[in-house]
Amino acid sequence: MTTRYRVEYALKTHRRDQLIEWIKGLLAVPFVLHSQPTGVFETRTSTVAQQAEEAHRRYAEILKDVEIMIDDHIEHQKSKQEAQSKLKLLVPSVGTFFTKLPLEQAFKEQDMRRFISSRRFVPPSFNDIRLILNTAQIMGLLASGPLDLATFDGDVTLYDDGQSLEPTNPVVSKIIYLMSKNTKIGIVTAAGYDEAERYYGRLHGLLEAVKNSDVLSEGQRKNLVVMGGESNFLFEYDPSSPWLLRYLSRRTWILPEMLRWTEQAIKELLDSAEWALEECKTNLKLPGKIIRKTRAVGIVPEVAGYRFPRESLEETVLVVQKKLEMSAAGKSIPFCAFNGGNDVFVDIGDKSWGVLVCQRYFGANEEGGSIRGDRTLHVGDQFLSTGSNDFKARVVGTTAWIASPSETVELLGELSTLISSK
Ligand code: IMP
Ligand code: MG
Description:
There is one protein chain. The chain is 47% helix and 13% strand. A seven-stranded mixed beta sheet has the order 5-4-3-2-1-10-11, with helices on both faces. Strands 6-7-9-8 form a four-stranded antiparallel beta sheet, with helices on one face. The protein is α/β, with parallel strands linked by helices and 422 residues long. The chain has 15 helices and eleven strands. The chain has three domains: 14-143, no CATH class; 149-259 and 350-421, 3-Layer(aba) Sandwich (Rossmann fold), CATH 3.40.50; 262-348, Hypothetical Protein, Haloacid Dehalogenase-like Hydrolase, Chain: A, domain 2, CATH 3.30.1240. Helix 3 packs antiparallel against helix 5. The protein binds inosinic acid (IMP) and magnesium ion (MG). Magnesium ion binds at residues 153, 155-157, 380-382. InterPro entries: HAD-like_sf, ISN1. This is IMP-specific 5'-nucleotidase 1.
């Protein structure tokens, strides 16, 4: 393996999303051919508008072609031959598509907001495409039925990193609106505690709003759970509990597949993870302390306010991930090693299990005993293939990749407009 290959491919792909990069590459061609940087000297507004129109038409055409290719991939999925779709050949990392993605329509919507076609120096970017995919996802979801379950990551998705959900956060009323339309809500966070009080601290704005809402029925109020530690601690909303949340003992909700996560296997995995973190702490001279919990182990700054270098956090995740993948413990039960922004944690299980538990918890009376993936939306900020915890949720349902709490509010705004227009 050449050094260049290692740097370009083996070490960098985890920081790129291949589908987004591929679409970005496709849109770069009409950008180069049709955007007119010389247009800044152009004084006739009609010419400028014409140029934007032409770019818009070409971008829309390409996104329509991608949409058709995704439809073809979905057809292949139905006959379990997705490995042979054209899309899979072009973008080997693509996973399951739970719904169609109306990319052309979503592009038109986003172009009205972001003026992508009017730009002459900045081509369609990673963020443009990420937002087009999000819009397409909620359009595709609602076109085929109701949204039965929405799950949300906590940090960066609902509130800023390390903060909590205050009553003034505009996301609160958006979530209440979804609940009033009978969508079930799961907060699926890595933050892992077994006491309700800790989650009340992080989520009190939402919990109090659910309690005091005059638009929710008693039944709708119950449609809220918190899944902590990715897939380890489940709480249901309960107005009679002191912190409005009731801890549900694991044996009441654990999935049959999780029974083999024995205490012994968990201990071995956390021991291996702890050694790997210790080694990184020594090698990278990280001024951090290691925290061992019942279902997680992590490294956090020793002194409040200190920020680890981004590169050290990434290196730590990659080292720990690799070591665990190679260990017997890491092969026996699922785990999630991720960069939390200023810490690195290894949790037992991952968000695919967390969302799956929510699907089964709320879907007990549904056909198959579970809410389906194409009726589920997980919203999160961590979707890179390594070192990101929301990524795992892609296996069990549709997802939206946001970059800040305000983007979550915007996304839910789009969602409620679509729901109310039905
Ligand atoms: P999330 O974005 O809601 O998934 O929360 C991730 C953050 O929760 C991490 O970056 C940590 O700062 C914090 N955290 C607290 N306890 C745990 C734990 O047991 N496992 C993982 N993360 C934890
Ligand atoms: Mg997050």
